[in-house]
Amino acid sequence: MIKGHCHCKNVNYSIESESSFQFLCHCHDCRILNGGGHLSGAIFSKDSFEFSGPTRIYEYKGGSGESIKAHFCENCGNHLFAFPGFKDDIVVVKANTFVSEKDFKPMKSIFAEEKFPWDIEIK
């Protein structure tokens, strides 16, 4: 089981499945939302994901043109996870919110053509 939380610990989550894909996303939107060179993300089955605590939702159009519903802690503002509209059975979880760093092993960089020259790329 993977567990995680926001900075202030008002929002907690648990995941009872293995990740189907772990990645670094270098797209413009993810860089801005993450406040860095890339977003570290992991995809899980929505059915295995549970969270508790108050979140606010920021909805925007992703690279597919479909909406993405990003959840943030109401208190500390930490971006925790998102539900992409193009595939309604998954959740994308920000790996930097995992309790254990051992739960994240990125497999590939996506949108690497948009990465900053100083950032890393996983091929």
Explain what you see.
The chain is mostly beta strands and 123 residues long. It has one domain: Beta Complex (Metal Binding Protein, Guanine Nucleotide Exchange Factor, Chain A), CATH 2.170.150. The chain is 6% helix and 42% strand. The protein has one helix at residues 28-34; strands at 2-5, 12-15, 21-25, 39-45, 49-52, 55-61, 67-73, 79-84, 90-94, 108-110. The strands form two sheets. Strands 6-7-8-9-4-3-10 form a seven-stranded mixed β-sheet. Strands 1-2-5 form a three-stranded antiparallel β-sheet, with no helix packed on it. The longest helix has 7 residues, at 28-34. The model has no long low-confidence stretch (mean pLDDT 95).
What's the quick description here?
With 123 residues, this protein is mainly β. It is built from one helix and ten strands, in the order βββαβββββββ.
List the helices and strands and how they pair.
Elements: E1 2-5, E2 12-15, E3 21-25, H1 28-34, E4 39-45, E5 49-52, E6 55-61, E7 67-73, E8 79-84, E9 90-94, E10 108-110
Parallel strand pairs: 3-10
Antiparallel strand pairs: 1-2, 2-5, 3-4, 4-9, 6-7, 7-8, 8-9
Average per-residue pLDDT, rounded, comes to 95
Tell me the name of the CATH class.
Answer: Mainly Beta
Q: What are the low-pLDDT stretches, counting only 5+ consecutive residues below 50?
A: none
The name CATH uses for the topology is Metal Binding Protein, Guanine Nucleotide Exchange Factor, Chain A
